[in-house]
Amino acid sequence: MIVLAREYACKKCKALTTGKMCPVCKSTELSKDWFGIMLILHPEKSKVAATLEITVPHKYALKVT
Ligand SMILES: [Zn+2]
């Protein structure tokens, strides 16, 4: 997957966005410092999503600093 340098990661739920607000939790606390990408398409079937408490299908950062 291509990483877009201008994407921001939400500090609360780690969702990636190119906008100024998190599309998942509506937080505006975004960080440029993140790495790794997880594409969660079916959170109800994903153990990773369950661990991270992700319920909305989206693209997430693995780590946000
Ligand atoms: Zn968020």
From TrEMBL:
Q: Locate the Spt4/RpoE2 zinc finger domain: which residues?
A: 7-65
User: Which NCBIfam families does the entry link to?
Assistant: RNAP_arch_Epp
Where, by residue number, does Zn(2+) bind? C10, C13, C22, C25
Q: What does this protein do?
A: Stimulates transcription elongation.
Which gene specifies this protein's sequence?
Answer: spt4
GO CC terms: DNA-directed RNA polymerase complex
Q: Name one GO molecular function term.
A: zinc ion binding
Question: Does the keyword Protein biosynthesis belong to this entry?
Answer: no
> What protein name applies here?
Transcription elongation factor Spt4
Going by the UniProt record, its keywords in alphabetical order are: DNA-directed RNA polymerase, Metal-binding, Transcription, Transcription regulation, Zinc
Subunit info here reads: Heterodimer composed of Spt4 and Spt5.
The yes or no answer to whether the keyword Cytoplasm is present is no
The family database entries (Pfam families) matched by this protein are listed as: Spt4
Name the Gene Ontology biological process terms.
regulation of DNA-templated transcription
Q: Which InterPro entries match?
A: RPABC4/Spt4 (IPR029040), Spt4/RpoE2_Znf (IPR022800), Spt4_arch (IPR007178), Spt4_dom_sf (IPR038589)
